[in-house]
Design brief:
The chain has ten helices and eleven strands. It is of the alpha+beta class. The protein has two domains: 147 residues, 2-Layer Sandwich (Ribosomal Protein S5, domain 2), CATH 3.30.230; 125 residues, Alpha-Beta Plaits (2-Layer Sandwich). Strands 1, 2, 3, 4, 5, 6 and 11 form a seven-stranded mixed sheet that branches. A four-stranded antiparallel sheet has the order 8-9-7-10, with helices on one face. Helix 2 packs parallel to helix 3, helix 3 packs antiparallel against helix 4 and helix 4 packs antiparallel against helix 5. The radius of gyration is 19 Å and the shape is globular.
């Protein structure tokens, strides 16, 4: 079975672990029976080499063990999703392997292994998703997206692991922070459904971006530059370090203006204009 799964961008500012959108970069997975566990990676991740111990503990092996009870499969992964960039690469991989291995509930398997369901829900259903995950149950709804909405995706060559990005977050937040965050989340959802109703307040996350800023110090400069170049606003993509600019039909001109400003950066990066991906997981 060959399965295709899209990338995703989670959080979208104030929607920490609850809001995500699918993006038109894809990963395909094929799982076939074999005498032993084999993992073949093409494109993104193809340069990584694993020791025998690392391979035995690889997340793909964990998924196979959970779904099938053993790992005697050859898994071929062809991914266009950059790794450790906040674009849901691990969520897409887990989801794709679970589905290709015959799981009756790949969404549940992926949410359990990931520990949260934002990326996996967006990758599974496509589009913009609001999700709540508790007691091993995924509760979600697909939200309306303004058809004029375009994204400008900034992907740096710098990697940032989700674990590291989560470790810097506080263990608790004040009632005031929670209340303000919920209000900003409501404003973000309103703006995504009608870009004429966007408020700048919607982009003022209080839960994760301020704490992760020290892990990628150029993030604020990139986000400010996106807005100065004509974007409606900008947010971290998931745990970063990719940045998602939110635009109307001017995304191409924003990208052109931004590329001039970003010449001062000391590392390589790419800028891509894209629409949300409406299609989720696909069996090819």
């Amino acid at each position: 079975m060959l399965v295709s799964v899209p990338a995703s961008s989670a959080n979208l500012g104030p929607g920490f672990d609850t809001l995500a959108v699918a993006l038109p970069k894809r990963l395909t997975v094929e799982v076939v029976e074999s005498k032993r566990f084999e993992l073949c990676s093409l494109n993104q991740g193809s340069e990584k080499k694993y020791t025998e111990t690392e391979l035995e503990n690889h997340i793909v092996a964990r998924v196979l063990q959970k779904v099938c009870g053993h790992t005697n499969f050859k898994v071929t992964v062809d991914s266009q999703i950059p790794l450790a960039r906040g674009l849901g690469s691990s969520a897409a991989l887990i989801l794709g392997v679970a589905k290709a291995a015959g799981s009756s509930d790949p969404l549940g398997v992926a949410a359990e292994i990931e520990g949260h369901a934002d990326n996996v829900a967006a990758a599974y259903f496509g589009g913009l998703i609001a999700v709540e995950y508790s007691h091993q149950t995924v509760n979600m709804t697909k939200l309306a997206i303004d058809p004029r909405l375009q994204f400008l995706l900034f992907i740096p060559e710098v990697e940032l692991s989700t674990k590291m990005a989560r470790d810097v977050l506080p263990s608790s937040y004040s009632r005031q922070v929670v209340a303000e965050s919920l209000g900003r989340l409501a404003m973000m959802m309103t703006g995504l459904s009608d870009i004429d109703k966007f408020s700048s307040v919607a982009f003022g996350d209080l839960i994760h971006q301020p704490y992760r800023a020290k892990l990628f110090v150029e993030a604020q400069f990139v986000m400010d530059s996106m807005v100065d170049s004509g974007a409606i606003g900008a947010v971290w993509s998931g745990a970063g370090p990719s940045i998602l600019g939110i635009c109307g039909d001017n995304a191409d001109s924003v990208a052109k203006n931004l590329s001039i400003t970003l010449k001062r950066l000391k590392f390589k990066y790419s800028l891509e204009v894209m629409k949300p991906e409406e299609n989720g997981i696909i069996i090819e």
